[in-house]
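Lab meeting, action items carried over

1. Structure of the three-component assembly. Owner: GW. Status: complete.
Input record:
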Amino acid sequence: MKKILSLGLVRGLIWQVLGTALGIGFVCLVRLLMHLPVWKAEPAVVFGALTGAIFFLIGLGVFRDWYRMAMGQAVEEMPDESGLGWIRYFGVSLDHKVIGIQYMVLALVLMSVGGIFALIFRTELVETGMQFLTMIEYNTLMSLHGMVMIISILVGIAAIMNYTIPLLIGASDMAFPRLNAFSFWIAVPAGLILLSSMALGGFDTGWTGYPPLSVRAPLGMQMFFLGVALAGFTSILGSVNILATIIRLRAKGMTPFRMPIFIWASIATSMISLTATQLIGLSFEMVMFQRLFGMGFFDPVKGGNPILFQHLFWFYSHPAVYVFVLPGLGIISELLPVFARKPLFGYKWVAMSSLGIALVGFLVWGHHMFASGMAEYLRVPFMYSTLLVAVPTGVKFFSWVATVWKGKITFPVPMLFIVAAVVVFLLGGLTGPPNATVATDLHLTDTYFIVGHFHDTLFGGFMFPFFAAVYFWYPKMTGRKLDDKLGKLHFWLVTPAFFVLSTLMMRIGLLGIRRRIADYDPALNFQSDHLVMTITGFLIALGVGVFIINLIRSAKHGELATGNIWNSRSPEWQVPSPMPMHNYEKPFEVVGEPYDYGLPGSVYVKFEGE
Amino acid sequence: MKHFLIVAVLVIISTFLVYFGLAHAGLFPAQASTQAVYIDQLFQIHIKLISFLFSLIVVILFYSLIVFRKKKGETGDGAYITGNTNLEIIWTVIPIMIVIYLAYVGAYTLGEVRQIDQSALQVKVTAGQWYWQFAYPDYSISTNELYLPLNRQVDLQMTSKDVIHSFWVPEFRVKQDIVPGQTTELRITPTIAGDYKVRCAELCGASHAYMEGLVRVVNQVDFDAWVKTQQSTAVQDPVLRGQQLVNQYGCTTCHSQDGSQKIGPTWLHLADSKVPLAGGKSVTADKAYLVSSILEPNLDVVKGFPSSVMPSFKDTLDQTQVEAIVAFIQSLK
Amino acid sequence: MSDQPHPNALRLGLLVLGSLAVLTAIEFALALTFNRWEILAILAIIKAGLVLYYYMHIQVLFQPDESRDRHSYEYKLVTNRIGLWLFMISDFFIFGGLLISRINLLGLTRPDLNQVLGLVITSILLISSFFANRGETFMKNGDIRQFKWSFIATITLGLLFILGVVGIEWRIAPFGPADGVQGAVFYTMTAFHAFHVLTGVVFLAFVLRKGVRGMYTPQQHWGVEAAAVYWHFVDVVWVFFYPALYLIGSLH
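Predicted assembly:
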């Protein structure tokens, strides 16, 4: 019992329950003192959920060191966590490698939850008419599928970035280890609050939460807004850490253009998530205030403007999609040279293309609003800027192809996923221009075509690279390889199924099927398409299931892999696996280019004493 | 070099195959408006571009993966090529030119789609949860079926009663959101007579999936005849009036008249029957109860049915309309 | 331990306050007579620039870092500074979003507020920044006593600001939060800002306590710098919020 309570996570959860109750009680007390009816569900539950989240963090202990610093007490800078074993993963660890793995596990948990939601509503969609879900249950599951997956992506990229960045630049940890732990742990109560929406009436707005519909949605809507606002801090504080780390903690000799390409991708990603994320928090908070205090931001009767919400929301949510894919595209650039045994073609151009995508990405948000009723004169400029993103993206594609051309290519499991990522992201990218030109978008917007487009870009830009990254760095984390056969099974279950899924989505969208519908007209004859899409969904789920089994089994039974199994030039592979506690016992100096495969005698890093 | 030659040929073949496949896959609904013609032309340009770019990348990628794979027993690395500035410039500048071209064509197409015909037929569209209402100010008629004359532009002036909806008929291609507190505009010139469905294209709550209305495109003669019929059918009989209203305002989306199970209670045999309420009590569904259910639907919800789904019609229907609806429900006793 | 800081450093702080006061007076006068949003915006930008340069020392961020030892205090100080500024850049976007919303919803109208109160609380906040800067200057030179009184002044003025906004302006405003877009915009903007003032006060209080107990030295006082810089950030936000809420535009 004592052992269970010593786990930070358990303590946090207990305190969260306590904090929620206290918060609810506090609101009731205030209402009593103000001579209002004591019980009103919405303010009580919203405030309760917020205090619950804060209490979670207190109970977890993530504030402890900061409190001590504020009081002027002594704090051990880098506590020795070596004796703690697996317990480290259930509480506050300051080691970026532990935090990276915590993020990875949370990402997989959220991915599974979000995926299960999809399987449920996809099963409902096989036949017309409502079989076992009510309309609001369908809408809630569909909306949560979207947001839970989005958060799993944010958490997944945090996993990759937190685990690898210090290793790639030669640092012993991130610049702010405690902030790093906080950034991870706040995602846990945030996710719980988000999921609690299901128990509080659900909501029917999709992940975009547009008012006026979200103002009149059930109480679950507030849990959605609050959960996302809190989860935003993971992104924001994570980016502070990533940028400060990259600026300050690079190894000697690692000039900007000698950094691994993934570092450039991380910089571009963090520039976006540092700044734009605040806008989704703000727009959601404004709707929360409209609900709680009657504020008329988006209420036309009070002089408000529903379209203002869309501007604020998409000002974040468009750049956000580049946050989702830039790390994955960076992974593709990072791993292709290793498996093609050839330099990354046009490294500088690829590095700049990540920044280019990030910058242009801030200027395109209106393309989500072409049919919204926003000022007409805005449509053409947004079309131009949106099409422009194709240019830096094209630079990446051409570079990838040029990297493998004349290479000496092998196909271990990570490479399979990288190739799939390139092709799938290409499909996603090529279906962008029809969405960008306004006239065609008027047909496509709010249909399954868009759903197909973003599933392609998200699987190609995040999901497949995420799988590749895990297969690639798992030996570094554990000293063992993931099983190859299971890896190939995972690949062949997911990839063809996904192609079919996204292609069908785009087909039925073009032919007139709207998105976000719980039911569809049998006279349109799309039952067989829906059946096939549901089957592919289950195949994808099966593949991910195989992946998770592989992750668990191989930790103890995987083939030992303590050396540089990929023959990579990258510094982390020059030391044995699993990675030592403080990364590099002897620091290294950068003496060459990162991707000079094929140049005899060239070396990237030299360790002290060599 | 022979690699380049082979690849070039493969890319060309692939482009044609992909284009042929896409162009003949029947990916588009019928082209039933002048706007659709322009939009489909732009789609064709996109499809050509997609076919070429897809082939360019995928062919060269897979060619490399096959031809340049490491063969058994081979050692060593690939060719040491770090980059080529000229190539980078080419594949930055050419895409910029394509982007500018596409944007230009896109703007041109949008201009064509947004052509204004001063003599367009005026229709006021009101969307609400979960119904469509169409008013023709020139003819003083109001219906829930959108009749449109062939080959004449209709100017839809649209507003919402509650949340954001969206007007879309796939065969016409163009779509426009409908926003409360504002009037948004959509212009369509239908070119093929027939029956279509307008389905709400912006998630608007529980029954969004079912929010549809009939759009019927007829020739001018039939249209004029229909207008005359609408004008003369000032329905006096309250029961018939009620029947008209429950279709117009989407009540039938959730309430059946034949006993079948839908989101809300069926009206068959409902009037003056004993209904169990959610709290445990039960009540007789007399006129007062039916009226209150329309004006304040969440006060006494029938047991087994969800609350907070039916919107209130207090601000939408006047007293005579409510009484007509109740009369209609009572006629299903 | 009571080294006097170079008189120029203290005088400079006073000079900046004086300039801010003059600019504020010009803002107010223009709002009453020649109310052009472009000019008021430029004045706000100038005021913000003064605070960013002279109080927040933004230029220090771009100075090359001399220290080589990664584990030294000096090296970590620069890293901490970058972290704080990154956080403030992020926070700035919330306030930017609120400003955009105000512009979109209110346009060239402004809410009906008490102008005297507006001038008073703005002055209070500007003076509080003066004292925060003064406190940091004294700490740099080891004068703990003067540091203490300066930070006490800052905290007091900060609390007075919150009293002025939440305690007084919120009560006497002729409209409530639910009264149209005017209410929504005003109460939300001031609430977000006041929340940051409150966190700033808490931050300053913790730092004051440590300073009084001798836990900072002229060479190592990151907490003091951070609290002061954060405080100035909150002040810069108000430099934009004040004209946006009180000055620009006309009443309905």
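2. GW to write a short summary for the group page. Key points so far: The interface with chain A takes residues 70, 75, 78-79, 82-83, 86-87, 89-91, 93-94, 97-98, 100-101, 104-105, 177-185, 187-188, 206, 209-210, 213, 215 of chain C (CB under 8 Å). DSSP finds seven helices and no strands in chain C.
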